[in-house]
Amino acid sequence: MFSPLSNPAYRRLFIAQVSALLGTGMATVALGLLAHDLAGANAGEILGAALSIKMVAYIAVAPFASAIAARLPRKTLLVSLDVVRAGVAITLPFVGAAWQVYALMAVLYTASAAFTPAFQAMIPDLLEDEGEYTKALSLSRLAADLESVASPVVAAVLLAFISYNNLFVGTALGFALSAVFVVRAILPRSAGAAPLPFIRRLTAGARLFALTPRLRGLLAVSLATAAGGAMVFVNTVVLVQSSFGLSQQATAWALAAFGAGSMTAALLLPRVLQRIPDRSAMIAGAGVMTGVLLLGAFVATSYPILLGLWIVMGFGYSLTITPAGRALRRSSTSQDRPSLFAAQFALSHACWLIAYPVAGLVSAEADPRAAFLVLAGLCAVGVVLALVVWPRYDPANLAHSHSDLDADDPHLSEGERPDRQSSWHAHPVVIDEAHPRWPRPDEK
Q: Could you tell me which of 35, 14, 167, 158 has the C-alpha nearest to residue 89?
């Protein structure tokens, strides 16, 4: 599980990720308190606007940032974005109006929209062995889950001694520490091929999603993931504090139960994915989330039952989200990988932009039981779409023919070729100049 940390470059990047996650978690707590200072009972309006800015930045900015960043050195890009995020964090304690919060959040989330896909796209180049990469994905999932539990606890302890404004200093330190470890890491160079034109770089990720069956399936699973996750993140507080009449601490423990389920799956997945394909694990996870949502509509009548449901929901959530990097890695070359990760970043957040309002509006206009049912339907749509568009036959080496190539073409020497006089061969397929479309099932 922890063997990827023996790679010095990955170890430093992992520490950088954890540092930035802890800083971001403290900023989330501090931002809520800042919003209350600025707007009192209307603090939700500021937070809602800030989250909307976040989603717009993640959806719209990530592909453009990836296309522009393709010409920049990786280390310079990541360190510069960390410095920008630290600068925003250190400025936040001095704001005195809502519009200033919005402006700073726009800068912060724009930097994050550029940083996260670029960071994720480097890991496959550092850990070329698929088993090690799978463990790295589980470690990243584990770090994210620990952040959701640890950051509020750290913030609560610090608030006993300092004002909430000083939490932003902790956020800045987290980003600064991230930059230090990125500087110390020896990062792989970008592919040596000549950079593609800007429009090609901008649209490369979306084109891969449109033409690669497993990526279309991944997008469908992302819809299911967002449906289940939105129910947890939006309506836990409603269920715990309004329906059950419990405290804020009870809400935190319910979210921790979800995190515990997710961490359990992350720990088990490296071994699981040695036995079953990514498709099976991800669709099974989405099916688990659908079942929990359906069941929740009828049995989520007490706090202990909700905790049990959220543990299982977290398990299914991690099953859907952790193997995604493997599917992205299989579907791209090193040159296309940054664009593909940026497209996944944007498209998955577009799914959340659908699920979040559904979770909130249905719960507010009807009740949480209705939200369970509606989101179960949305989650089931994702499961069915994934089953339809992601073929069960998805081998590492895909047999296919090139009727437009001569039998002695150099490309046909790649992979396995049973007959030197035919145009058939088998190798890992990605959409590129040699494979402008995905081989049809009858070409196996």
A: 167
